[in-house]
Amino acid sequence: MASVYDRHVDLNGFMEGVKKRNPGQTEFIQAVQEVAQDIFEFIEDKEEYHQAQILRRIAEPDRVVSFRVCWEDDNHNIRVQRGWRVQCNNAIGPYKGGIRFHPSVTESVLKFLAFEQTFKNSLTGLPMGGGKGGANFNPKGKSDAEVMRFCQSFMTELYRHIGPDTDVPAGDIGVGGREIGYMFGQYKRIVNRWEGVLTGKGLEYGGSAMRPEATGYGAVYFLQNMLKHGGKDIEGHTAVISGSGNVATHAAEKITQLGGKVLTLSDSGGFIYDPDGIDQEKIDWVKHHKTHTRGRISDYVDHFPGASFHGDGARPWGVAADLALPCATQNELNEEEAKELVGNGVIAVSEGANMPTTLEGVHVFQEAKVMYAPGKAANAGGVAVSGLEMSQNSERISWNHGRLGEMLTELMEGIHGKCVEFGDQGDGHVDYVKGANIAGFKKVADAMLAFGVV
Ligand SMILES: NC(=O)C1=CN([C@@H]2O[C@H](COP(=O)(O)OP(=O)(O)OC[C@H]3O[C@@H](n4cnc5c(N)ncnc54)[C@H](O)[C@@H]3O)[C@@H](O)[C@H]2O)C=CC1
Ligand SMILES: O=C(O)CCC(=O)C(=O)O
Asked: Which domains does the chain have, with CATH numbers?
């Protein structure tokens, strides 16, 4: 009997289904839409992917675990947060992706991040599936003891869902070395085994050299590869950067080392503009201020009076520059701001953050033929070095900073090459969004085909 099931739905029909199955999950729907438009074009004449409903399956996480996290604050109040782990796809390796602690965390945000992570991890060429987790916990203003109690409580539930060959979380917004230490300590205490279940660990207990720098440096290496492909270079160019955390400060450091001049950094309060350039001494001050003092970026102008602070949550995209690196959070660069950057002559955009540009903003860059690197390609250096941390833990060895630096440089060159292979438009322009989506998809999809219907 002939099947009445239409496996050849078009992009609109597919997206209608995604919206119906994920009501109100705007970030997740946005991430799927951005990928689906390229994948539909790619699989148009590839019956095997339609037959196996591969895209439909990738857009449905393997599982979403949500749980209660109770902890006691310093005033003995009992606080209740919600934690999640989204295990999106493990076709090519154990689930892998960071943990985010921020009040804006929802299931939709974590589903979009886990979905993006699946393609990103595939692009690295390393055997890692995609996952992401987190909680609507705000570490800002909390004491070390409160953060420790929260992390321990979070891990007391999470530990049963993860493992070195199952799911290997790491850091993300609000989760850095301090939080990884507290969570790793609690995991080890519960299972009574030392195993590489988290990455981003301290160097004293199995962490990898180069992991703290890897995402920001990697985003600049990707930028360098794009510019080189277009016959240009970072040296002598100005850059606007958003954020002032791990990714932003290391991106600023690498731009500066390569002869560029960084003009801005930001946080949710606003941005600082330093026309003299944010050099290494100033970057070191920001790193210390954000990681140890845990202060605001507005304090920068008290230390470096040549700079100005622009408050009320203002974003830096109106400052004229050659290069732009959004390194804070999702949807922090909209259509109007993209137009402003293009109007000011931006040459290239490299996303250190995940999905920082809205869909409309992406279209502005694509239409203007700006060199535009989406986060899933540009910021893959972090998870790539996490993959190398997993290898080092499994082998009970550790590689040195120099060797890992070389490996990171090669990995980013490889990711750039894959984007060019699938995104070359034949007119000298590379559509890096298309290139990253198709290259990331193909490996995962082919692995899924090999497994049959699972
Ligand atoms: N840490 C890593 O290895 C990787 C991080 N990413 C992405 O990079 C971005 C930044 O992450 P990290 O630097 O690790 O986090 P972080 O916690 O070290 O820093 C986050 C920065 O973003 C700013 N920020 C947060 N929400 C904001 C908002 N609503 N408006 C303006 N600024 C805001 C914070 O003030 C802070 O400066 C995120 O999108 C994350 O998913 C991507 C790949 C790997
Ligand atoms: O290093 C990792 O496993 C996670 C990095 C991450 O969360 C990301 O790439 O967005």
From this structure: 11-58 (no CATH), 63-194 (3.40.50.10860), 213-378 (3.40.50.720)
